[in-house]
Specification:
heterodimer; A: about 100 residues; alpha+beta; 3 helices; 3 strands; flat; B: about 475 residues; Arc Repressor Mutant, subunit A; 9-stranded mixed β-sheet; 3-stranded antiparallel β-sheet; 15 helices; 17 strands; elongated
Chain lengths: ~100, ~475
């Protein structure tokens, strides 16, 4: 499978990555190579295998419904570029 | 079927609802931070909820248990194997850049719910699925001229997204669906149903078509937060779509917002590719596998739900379907009624609760649990009528005083001397007094004007300040007035 420039530009936009025009073509080639590598798996006949979400023979572990965390607003906000009155403050998001 | 009349003929609306219901739990879906409403900003946030690098989600068993119980309450298929996916999008209140949700393999599959309409009819509405997901944080846009404030307390709180089939055909059906769903969640205790605090929010899908035609293009109205607004949004949106189509236009599939102040829907600023969420299984979480025994145990422990309770009140207690429906609509009301009816005449209890009690409760504006009249007090009042201490009419007076003063019936009766007079001698004395004062009417009555009997009853009751036993008054009056 190979990706064209337009698809790469779209993926970059969805991921909020700024790729200069000149980088699109090389990136398309790189991503296509990765996809081709993974495509080798298609050689395996999986007709009789149920789709899997994980390859591990383990089950999801569950946690008791107890409050064990929180109460550290200062730590949560410590890396925020701007915080006011206990809130993160970000450039206005208008909807 | 409710059709809308347009310029060019009748239209039918097709409605489906996606309800986000906050799971009742102490801690969040994947972290140990608390879920209490109204806490200080960012005080209930763990490093998982803030999406700090390297933090891993661990699922809360209570949330799983609540989702399965809700699925069982909706008579739905429980999927013993379900998967958590990442739904990717960027927004300031979504620190991870993705929401953990369930996409292709939700925990609950197809189910159904019965709605009750004002006409007395019932309809079954299909449930497509129920899945577990995280809530996002909360953005406040009106606190600062150029900044948006973000509070992550809600980030990571467990939500159940409950999706209906497009089975509803009127705003009434949609509101009946929401009302019933809310009641079921509250009976189950899986969501508190508090729409003001955002515990329940609805996305409404609206389209219109000619009766019997294929589906029209739909618009989704996001985040409607009251049952009344759902009705208004649907009515406005269906009208808008009919006008667009009849004016020669076409409906664009889009997401709209309901402006509660103006009562209109308007398009959200739509971004191209806004709906490309690039779902994929969350590599931090393994599939959720449930044991059949676990599901069977939860099924066995399910409480009686509104439909079953209503059927039982009609079948075993002889209530009318209407009264039973009113009493089961809210769990607290049903509990109150059952406490009053316990060991008493079920119909008399129902008449009291749906009559004087509801009127006074609604007038007070208080929740039933904080109202002055408790089940025990109302029950005692009913007993005082049963044993002859009070007549029905006196009981209404005593009830009104109980509501006002918050006292028990016995204290009011004692102080105000409201005990019913059943003593024949005392009643006869009043009758003699009334007859003496109305000699002309006595003569007319005896001459055949029997209609006057009611007048005498009224006068005697009035003279006794309503305390005379009405049955005794009737009987003694008949004897005394006989020619």
């Amino acid at each position: 499978m190979s990706l064209d420039k337009a698809t790469v530009a779209r993926i970059a936009r969805l991921a909020r990555l700024r790729l200069p025009e000149a980088a699109l073509e090389p990136m398309a080639a790189e991503l296509s190579a990765i996809l081709s590598f993974v495509e080798q798996l298609e050689a395996v006949d999986t007709a009789a295998v149920a789709p899997m979400a994980s390859g591990m023979a383990m089950r999801l572990r569950l946690r008791a419904d107890e409050v064990t965390d929180g109460g550290k607003a200062e730590a949560i906000l410590a890396n925020a570029p701007e915080a006011i009155d206990g809130f993160f403050a970000v450039p206005k998001v208008v909807e | 079927m409710a059709l809308l009349e347009g310029e060019t003929g009748p239209w039918e609306m097709v409605l489906g609802l996606e309800v986000h219901a906050q799971v009742t739990s102490k801690a969040k879906l994947f972290s140990g931070a608390a879920t209490t409403f109204g806490a200080q900003p960012n005080s209930q946030v763990s490093l998982v909820d803030a999406a700090m690098p390297g933090m891993l989600p661990v699922i809360n068993e209570r949330c799983v248990y609540q989702a399965v119980r809700t699925g069982l309450g909706l008579k739905a298929q429980i999927n013993l194997h379900s998967v958590f996916d990442r739904k990717n999008y960027f927004y300031a209140d979504l620190p991870a850049g993705y929401q953990i949700s369930q996409f292709t393999q939700p925990i609950v599959g197809k189910g159904s719910l019965t709605i009750d309409l004002a006409s007395g009819e019932s309809r079954t509405i299909g449930i497509t699925r129920l899945h577990l997901e995280q809530d996002a944080g909360k953005s406040l846009h009106d606190q600062h001229p150029s900044l948006t404030y973000v509070d992550l307390n809600r980030s990571g709180v467990a939500l159940m997204e409950i999706v209906s089939e497009p089975d509803m055909r009127s705003a009434e059906e949609a509101t009946a669906y929401l009302t019933k769903l809310r009641a079921i969640l509250r009976y189950l205790g899986t969501c508190d149903g508090n729409m003001e605090e955002g515990s329940m929010r609805a996305d409404v899908n609206v389209s219109v078509r000619r009766p019997g035609a294929g589906l029209g293009t739909r618009c989704e109205i996001k985040n409607v937060n009251s049952i009344r607004f759902v009705r208004q949004a649907i009515e406005y949106e269906a009208r808008r779509q009919i006008e667009v189509i009849e004016g020669g236009g076409t409906i664009l599939q889009e997401t709209r917002l309901f402006d509660t102040a103006k009562g209109v829907t308007r398009p959200m600023r739509s971004k191209e590719e806004a709906h490309d969420y690039r779902y994929f299984p969350d590599p931090d979480l393994l599939p959720l596998v449930l044991e059949p025994d676990f599901v069977a145990r939860l099924a066995a422990d399910l409480p009686e739900l509104p439909d079953e309770k209503k059927a039982r009140l009609v079948r075993d207690l002889g209530l009318s379907p209407y009264d039973a429906g009113v009493l089961v609509a809210e769990k607290e009301t049903a509990d109150f009624y059952e406490a009053v009816a316990q060991g008493r005449d079920a119909k008399i209890a129902a008449n009291w609760v749906t009559g004087d009690f509801f009127a006074a409760l609604n007038g007070s504006g208080k929740p039933i649990g904080e109202f002055t009249v408790t089940p025990a007090r109302l029950g005692r009042l009913i007993d005082l009528v049963g044993d002859g201490t009070l007549s029905g009419r006196l009981a209404k007076d005593v009830f009104a005083r109980m509501v006002e003063s918050g006292e028990e019936a016995d204290a009011i009766i004692e102080r105000e001397g409201l005990r019913q007079v059943t003593d024949g001698g005392a009643i006869l004395a009043v009758i003699d007094q009334v007859m003496a004062a109305n000699g002309d009417k006595v003569a007319e009555y005896r001459a055949g004007k029997e209609k006057l009997f009611g007048f005498f009853v009224g006068q005697v009751m009035k003279a006794s300040q309503g305390k005379a036993n009405p049955a005794a008054v009737n009987q003694l009056l008949k004897e005394k007035l006989a020619p």
